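Loading example: each entry is read as four labelled lines plus one structure line.
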Amino acid sequence: MRRDVFQAIADPTRRAIIALIALQAMTPNAIAEHFDSTRQSISKHLRILSECDLLSKTQQGREIYYQLQIEKMKDIDKWLDQFRKIWETRFNQLDNVLSAIKNNKK
Amino acid sequence: MRRDVFQAIADPTRRAIIALIALQAMTPNAIAEHFDSTRQSISKHLRILSECDLLSKTQQGREIYYQLQIEKMKDIDKWLDQFRKIWETRFNQLDNVLSAIKNNKK
DNA sequence: AATTTGCGAAACCGATCGGCTGCATTTATA
DNA sequence: TATAAATGCAGCCGATCGGTTTCGCAAATT
């Protein structure tokens, strides 16, 4: 299934997983210990995160290390870029509304 | 209902709405013209975006102008900050996995 | 005063979500 | 070789999602 990064980070548990393994790769069991839900539930989240390439796996014997593909996080940053340009130049938000209304009245 | 910014931007239509009205406030009807779905469907999206303070309303007669609260977009930027620090300093992702495994073997 | 316009709320619907339990498989250990 | 450990998958469930149609209401227009 083709997944979307924005849909992946919508869930708070998945965001917590991302933050947890950002610095160090971890196994599903080790990750699950940090949460209240079951290991299988975490496993599902890992699958979703993997499907949109936010995570990659490295098998080591019977253990599987999941690590964050930090490059993929830049996708979100790129999307934010268009708005970053705006909030860096906009000083008075009210101008926005008023000009819109004025243009419409013409 | 208390809404979450990350859940709000998970939907592609809502992201398109955000981009559409980023520069200029618009009415629900005007926004809906840019999409295939019904006006009521767009109205639902506007409600969700409003509930997490991404949008604000300005009534003008019987028309309601929705405008993006660009400040709220910074919430996403703030969340990305923790990862931005990482991708700016990490040159070799492989180091990450290997050190994790090594630490585990101790 | 009657009609049109702009909008939101409610009710419904199939699809998906996020959690669970149970099971199968592979690898390590006793 | 038998057992334990690590993991993923399938199926179930109630809740939520995103869409639609129908309706009601207030403001503008005729």
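Helices of chain A lie at 5-8, 12-20, 28-32, 39-51, 70-89, 93-105.
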